[in-house]
Amino acid sequence: MKAIVIPNPNEIEIREIDMPQVKEGEALLKVKYVGICGADVASFTGNQPFTTYPRIPGHEFSAEIIEIPENDKGLKAGDIVTCNPYFNCGGCYSCERGFVNCCTDNQTMGVQRDGAFCEYIAMPVERIYEGKGLSAEELALIEPFSISQHAASRCEIKENDNVLVIGAGPIGLFALLAAKAKCKNVVVADVLDNRLELAKEYGADAVINTKKQSLEEFTNEFTGGKGFDVCIEACGAPETFLGCIDSCAFAGNIVLIGNGKRETSFVHSILLKKELNVYGSRNALKDDFINNIDLVANGKADVMKMVSRVYDMENALDAFKALADNDGTLAKILIKIGD
């Protein structure tokens, strides 16, 4: 079968590799679409510390079941599905307590182990989720949506809360969708107008370009000086984390999704003074996937607006280069693997 391989940083090859060996308790899947994640781009550019080479990237995907053992989930050959790509060890303290998304030996497909950018994969049946009639393209977007859904579930978001999402990339926009399912007022901040326009399409109640307007002044005006009840940081930059601290209400909640690559300096007594709750968010859980599939199936979330381009497998190098050089105009890119 064919596979998209990163042999070394800044290189992409289409290789012929062996078909997967299907073990007991696993299903054989034919991959349909795979999204390119920021982690995949980091592997391509050589900026992913957990990747070794050569590596088959990809963990945002949809697939058709080709063969599957008898199961109590009702899954059968021909079903279009998506999967949980985070493999946990089952024996560490996190796994023992049920926090499998925080496994100390986590192996994410496409990063610590080979991923879904190939024609066929074998997956444990327990990691396969029914597609409930969604298209293969929609199902390839459920995993990144679930990252944001998990973040939005880290603290209680109440119906009348004012929520601020900083960062209108795909994860920030998915966080907007997740928050809008819980409350009435969600604001999105970014420095790119085109991304903020997409945030409006996704139902943001207000947007702010922080390059053109003071976030502090906007916060005071929008919240009547109270601050935001919940601030979701989806950039990973020191400035945006500090912006969350400043914008958050006393006794408010900050959720961090953005993967920071630079140190942040601040006087931590502000966290005490405002008694802020600061939550980290890692990966996603089974319920996040299932809830998102239901949201999309019930027409409460339109994920397809997120797709900027779709490439064929043979043009994978162009797709990775496009995102590596992204000026902010691209959101999600999908690669079509199989019919």
Task: Summarize this structure briefly.
With 339 residues, this protein is an alpha/beta fold. Helices cover 27% and strands 26% of the residues. The chain has 2 domains: 198 residues, Quinone Oxidoreductase, Chain A, domain 1 (Alpha-Beta Complex), CATH 3.90.180.10; 126 residues, NAD(P)-binding Rossmann-like Domain (Rossmann fold, 3-Layer(aba) Sandwich).
Question: What keywords describe this structure?
Answer:
17 strands; 339 residues; 27% helix; alpha/beta; seven-stranded mixed beta sheet; Quinone Oxidoreductase, Chain A, domain 1
Give a verbal description of the structure.
This protein has 339 residues and is α/β, with parallel strands linked by helices. It has two domains: 2-146 and 284-336, Quinone Oxidoreductase, Chain A, domain 1, CATH 3.90.180; 155-280, NAD(P)-binding Rossmann-like Domain (Rossmann fold). It has eleven helices and 17 strands. The chain has helices spanning 38-45, 93-96, 136-139, 142-152, 170-180, 193-201, 215-223, 238-247, 269-273, 286-297, 316-324; strands at 2-5, 13-16, 26-35, 60-67, 80-83, 86-87, 107-108, 120-124, 128-130, 162-166, 185-190, 206-209, 228-233, 248-256, 277-280, 307-312, 332-336. Strands 3, 4, 5, 8, 9, 16 and 17 form a seven-stranded mixed sheet that branches. Helix 5 (170-180) links the parallel strand 10 (162-166) and strand 11. Helix 4 (142-152) packs across helix 5 (170-180). The radius of gyration is 20 Å and the shape is globular. The two termini are 14 Å apart.
